[in-house]
Amino acid sequence: xxxxxxxVKNLKEVADLLNTVVTEAKFKxxxxxxxxxxxxPAHVAMISxxxxxxxxxxxxxxxxxxxxxxxxxLKAVIKLASxxxxxxxxxxxxxxxxxxxxxxxxxxxxxxxSVTTPRIPQISSEYFVVLGKSDLEKxxxxxxxxxxxxxxxxxxxxxKARSMxxxxxxEMVLPKDMLKEIxxxxxxxxxxxxxxxxxxxxSLASAxxxxxxxxxxxxxxxxxTLNQGKGNAExxxxxxxxxxxxxxx
Amino acid sequence: MRISKSLKIPASLCIRCRGTKMLCGLSYCPITxxxxxxxxxxxxxxxxxxxxxxxxxxxxxxxxxxxxLYPSSPPVIGDTSDYEDPGRxxxxxxxxxxxxxxxxxxxxxxxxxxxxxxxxxxxxDVQLMSMSREPxxxxxxxxxxxxxxxxxxxxxxTPMGPWSPLKKLEIEPGKHELVVEKxxxxxxxxxxxxxxxxYKSGIKEYRIxxxxxxxxxxxxxxxxxxxxxxxxxxxxxxxxxxxxxxIKGYSTVDEHLVYVRKTSGNLFMAILSxxxxxxxxGESWFPGxxxxxxxxxxxVEIDHEGYYGRKDYPGIGGCYYASRLAVAExxxxxxxxxxxxxxxxxxxxxxxxxxxWFVRENMRAxxxxxxxxxxxxxxxxxFLSKYTKVPVKYWLAKSGNYPFLRTGGLDDYL
Lengths: 249, 414
Description:
- The complex is a heterodimer.
- In chain A, 17% of the residues lie in helices and 44% in strands.
- Chain A is α+β, with helices and mostly antiparallel strands.
- The longest helix of chain A is centred in the first third of the chain and has 12 residues, at 8-19.
- Chain A is elongated, with a radius of gyration of 19 Å.
- The model of chain A has no long low-confidence stretch (mean pLDDT 91).
- The longest helix of chain B is centred in the middle third of the chain and has 20 residues, at 228-247.
- Chain B has helices spanning 2-7, 11-17, 30-42, 94-102, 121-131, 178-185, 191-200, 205-213, 228-247, 318-334, 357-367, 377-384, 392-398, 402-405; strands at 48-53, 56-59, 66-73, 105-112, 136-142, 163-171, 256-263, 266-273, 278-285, 299-305, 339-346, 372-374.
- The interface between A and B is medium-sized, with 25 and 20 residues.
């Protein structure tokens, strides 16, 4: 028996986030909630999202199980609803049934074996910055038409995002007082493919801030929580995004 | 022949060269080819031909859906199977290849493509002949004499000889494998599945495309003939789609594997990198090669697909899918997946369109060789730079795989 109910706004955001790296994803369900991990086929980016039981309006999961879905199909179903709606999802044989208002729609599940379970890289850096999503977004957009990579630099007093091509340059500097938190000893810097960061930031509709950790030429970790609005203030949908560095030549 | 007429090679060159030095810059000698083909044409008495068809058939695309269907045969009795088997052509001289192909004489008849859903007796005869596993005797009576001007030279389709309208056709049905009879006889078997069924049973792709082109497979009511040009690429695409789906279940190659093949007027290269399936096919045509007759510099064109494939048709066309089939087969044999970067340089003098088999078979031959192994993509590219005439930075600038391969990748941190 599996029957859950979640706000369309939340589900849409989760689907958009997954879609930044994959088109198929495997969800793990148990009594504590739902989690999903996905790595893009080029193994450059990975996302992991946790949806604890409490963020659901209804949550009935009797046994641990895995459900694999085509994310594009999921998004197509969500498009039928408005963001204030609730969607109730239940599993019937090899199908997932969605009830949104007066509409009932079923999509077929994918074979769990056909969707890869990512291997989780061991990544940790003690240096981090917590900054507003809109600030980061401005810096990324400034770099968008300059290059396909962006170099992030962290010192004990500021955070910089810089892009360069033969003819153009773009840089954003956020001093300590514009950052929520910063921890770093001495400068660290690393470059990342810009496209993935832009897709992530565009998909993070409800997050206000994010924590970014990295060190010299090392994968970037971005931690975020989604805003649940009123109620449910205790529990959040949270996620981690990992991005491999672009080695400079 | 039309080719020699239009080129106007100065006689002084030919007199000094005599078919040995290729002074005209072509990769074959038009005079040698003419001398090889004409005696075969002279064997035809009146407007009638009896020969052993390899088997061979051509379906035109002009006038679609009302097209011309051309059963064909050389004026030769015996084992003619090498007139139709691309696997054997890369080992013979271009002159010999052309003389074989241009002596495949075709009898033409008008046919509506949808006629394959309820074939006439004649069409059924042509279907049975086309499916045969060995040469079969054909007798064709033409309403006009054959004119050697009407040959086929095309970048997708293998060259074929002249044609004349058919007055009468008699064909021996040939011999068929059980699986061929099964897919032909099964009225509910979808064409795509039938193609893969044949492929799995060891029927070569050039035979599958021929069977597809004469409308001998598919759900019976929907059966139709497919112009040869389209059927070749449809077969390469359909078969490679299924092989690619299979290899996605395997783990990746363990290092960057580099393959190189130098052949007349061409350099073929591949790097198979230890990542999930991605694919690119790149061509660089030098000035004076078939498709860059007037340019002043080599042009690099690359088409690319990510893990989930592409939704539009690649600009490069048939060679993209022919090479994709070759690399997918190579990976399936290794039971591995990889990010496949395939490039080809085409040099001046290679200026005859021979058909996509040339790419498929050269790629297959290349993947049958032992690869060079490198631990980084950069090392692999540096190695290839010793072979390429186009600086590798121009290749990399247009590469669809490179932006992914130059990134370290999360796997480095497992």
